[in-house]
UniProtKB/TrEMBL annotation:
Lineage: Eukaryota, Fungi, Dikarya, Ascomycota, Pezizomycotina
Species the sequence originates in: Lophiostoma macrostomum CBS 122681
GO molecular function (one): hydrolase activity, hydrolyzing O-glycosyl compounds
Protein name as it appears in the record: Carbohydrate-binding module family 35 protein
Signal peptide bounds: 1-19
Pfam families listed in its UniProt record: Glyco_hydro_43
Length: 438
């Protein structure tokens, strides 16, 4: 009897659906509608009809191509794995150079193509791996771009440091090289087009560590490249991410361009997350800027971007403070006061926090001078400690770190903020928390 009870509990746990996602949270762990961590790196998103298809390499499945679908760019449903026999395919990308759907990715430093009659399943291996025309180059990172005239282009970062653009022929084969960028060691290419100008975003080559990605522009697909130009303050290192694709959402009110990047863990493994942010394109001056938001979303019908508007704020200086931590001046805090000297024997407890019942985004507003010296932890009610960095890669890098927590309904939640390591040396200052209600 007891066994069947356990089995029942397990099976109901396994089928628990994840509540709808209300925000895109750069650097945070993103959950699918099946309550699994979304794992689709080096990927891209292709819209067909009213559905967005996201393909990427799955770090927890030997870098097989994995696919998710969504209607709103927030809730992603895992689709079937499109091709089981292919492993270690890096940066898979969709293309549709003829009536078939294609996936191109790098396998053994050459291009491997897969082909299907439907976008989301049953891809067959299409021929053997090929090197890049005209010189038979091997390469690492695959990018993809579809021009307005329906021509598809594969972007590659060749091993000898040029980023190359080749046409994809209508039979799916890799065609002529139409352009290349030989202005330094760049990889992870992505291309998008605004008002006839082609904007190429590339990353530097620093392994899994992030760097300030750069933009180059050209006035035709085969034109010469102008640049490099930064797309975010250098110190942000592209908000701890590396480019993979630029998505254009043409809405009824606005066309929004989205930078999609990977926030890699130390080895490109399953702890890697995703950083997506909208971009401002200054067409007069040909500048691209990432518009970083700790939380945002886009209405895929209108193209309009929004950020949370309903938040309940709790000030750290009014919370219960134990240990060495103490209220002090804080120039960057909302009320110019915050809790400093948060050492490992300290805790800042927010009482009577109002929750809606269930998973909810809570923004921790804190600053850390040196994130190598300390790690922030959070306890909610009687749940075990949560390491903030494990839920959001932006922890310690930004003053607003949203993580998703399980709150009770009503005004009696207790949230404790504490720090392991040397929080005083690390310069941790807690400003407050904001519980997002929309
Ligand atoms: C696309 O081209 C490939 C390769 O020539 C071919 O096998 C496939 O049938 C074509 N798809 C369609 C729908 O024409
Ligand atoms: C929390 O709310 C309860 C019930 O209203 C109240 O008795 C208690 O004093 C509050 N605690 C704090 C720390 O404000
Ligand atoms: C917290 O999580 C991060 C990211 O997963 C990890 O690197 C770090 O070691 C963790 N720290 C502790 C104290 O568990």
């Amino acid at each position: 009897m007891i066994f069947s009870k356990i089995a029942l509990a397990l099976s109901s746990a396994a089928t628990v659906a994840h509540a709808a996602n209300s925000w895109i949270v750069p650097g945070a762990v993103w959950m699918s509608t099946s309550n699994t961590k979304i794992d689709a790196h080096g990927g891209m998103v292709l819209k067909r009809g009213d559905t967005f298809y996201w393909i990427g390499q799955s770090a927890s499945h030997n870098e097989q191509p994995y696919l998710y679908t969504s209607k709103n760019l927030l809730d992603w449903t895992p689709a079937s794995n499109p091709q089981n026999s292919i492993q270690y395919m890096w940066r898979p990308k969709f293309a549709k150079p003829n009536g078939s759907f294609w996936i191109y990715g790098q396998v053994d430093r050459n291009v491997q193509a897969l082909k299907s009659s439907t976008i989301n399943d049953n891809y067959a291996v299409a021929g053997s791996k090929v090197s890049l025309p005209p010189s038979g180059y091997t390469y690492s990172d695959t990018g993809m771009f579809a021009d307005d005239d329906g021509t598809w282009y594969i972007l590659t970062s060749a091993d000898h440091n040029t980023v190359q653009i080749n046409r994809i022929n209508s039979d799916g084969s890799i065609g002529d090289r139409v352009n290349y960028l030989a202005k330094g060691a760049y990889e992870a290419p992505g291309l998008f087009k605004v008002n006839g100008i082609y904007y190429l975003i590339v990353s530097g080559k620093t392994g899994w560590r992030s760097n300030p990605n750069q933009m180059f522009w050209a006035s035709s697909i085969s034109g010469s490249w102008n640049g490099p130009y930064g797309i975010a303050p250098d110190a942000e290192k592209t908000y701890n991410s590396q480019n993979t694709f630029e998505l254009t959402v043409a809405g009824s009110q606005k066309t929004t361009y989205i930078y999609m990047g990977d926030s890699w863990d130390s080895k490109g493994g399953p702890d890697s997350n995703h950083v997506w942010v909208p971009m401002t394109v200054d067409t007069a001056n040909k500048k691209v800027t990432l518009d970083y938001h700790a939380q945002w979303k886009i209405d895929v019908n209108t193209g309009v971007v929004s950020t949370p508007s309903r938040k309940r704020r709790y000030e750290a200086e009014r919370a219960e403070i134990v240990g060495r931590a103490a209220v002090g001046e804080c120039g960057r805090c909302l009320n110019k006061r915050g809790v400093r000297k948060i050492t490992s024997d300290s805790a800042v407890t927010f009482h009577n926090v109002t929750g809606l019942g269930g998973r909810q985004w809570v923004q921790f507003h804190y600053h850390m001078q040196d994130r190598n010296l300390a790690e922030a932890h959070v306890y909610v009610n009687d749940q075990p400690a949560v390491n903030i960095s494990s839920l959001n890669h932006r922890a310690g890098y930004h003053d607003i770190v949203p993580i998703e927590l399980n709150l009770r309904e009503g005004a009696d939640n207790k949230i404790i903020f504490s720090v392991s390591g040397n929080g005083e040396e690390a310069g941790v200052v807690l400003d407050g928390i904001e519980v997002v209600e929309d």
